[in-house]
User: Fold this.
Amino acid sequence: MNQEFSKLDQFDSQNYTRWADKFNFQLHVLKLAYVLDPKLSPISADPIPKVGKNVDPTIIYDLEKQRALRRESEELCVGHNKNSLSDWIYDLYASVKDSREI
Assistant:
């Protein structure tokens, strides 16, 4: 990505509404905002069919590719979220791996 944007002010428990709007906009620019959708099903909830007579192997490849992209998007979202927290808040959420939980 060859875009330049200003660094988001760190959230330090003040002005949450302003910070959240800016953070949400940043995720939209990065095309990661969908990760925070509460209706988004977990990755493991999408079953991958077994290879058989009636299953095209390209479908399985596509599903695995989508899962990999989704995992990467979630990791990026968590990273951007944690990066925008002040140090003491970061320490509270350092072990959290789900961006919706943060």
The chain has a mean pLDDT of 81. Helices lie at 16-29, 57-83, 87-93. The chain has one domain: 16-93.
